[in-house]
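Q: Please design a sequence for this.
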């Protein structure tokens, strides 16, 4: 997945649809030195997570987490309804 994949998804998603953009421990997996991910993967993940946060700050998605197991969490973006008021 790349950043543009989230943009395309959010434009076409129906309210309530979700997209899993990471599974693992996001804070650790994004951090240089802490992550066991290859640098290129970690850098891409950092961009994707930052873009998901920007979409949430703009009121386009809600960010939620679902525990999958010990040290494994699914990070999801959920498309909000287009008729909801946006945060300013």
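A: Design:
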């Amino acid at each position: 997945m790349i950043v543009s994949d989230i943009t395309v998804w959010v434009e076409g998603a129906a309210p309530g649809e979700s997209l899993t953009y990471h599974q693992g421990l996001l804070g650790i997996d994004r951090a240089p030195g802490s992550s066991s991910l290859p640098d290129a993967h970690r850098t891409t993940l950092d961009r994707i997570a930052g873009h998901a946060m920007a979409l949430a700050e703009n009121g386009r998605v809600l960010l939620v987490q679902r525990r999958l197991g010990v040290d494994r969490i699914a990070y999801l973006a959920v498309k909000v309804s287009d008729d909801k008021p946006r945060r300013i």
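Q: Thanks. Anything notable?
A: The chain is about 40% helix and 25% strand. Residues 39-57 form the longest helix (19 residues).
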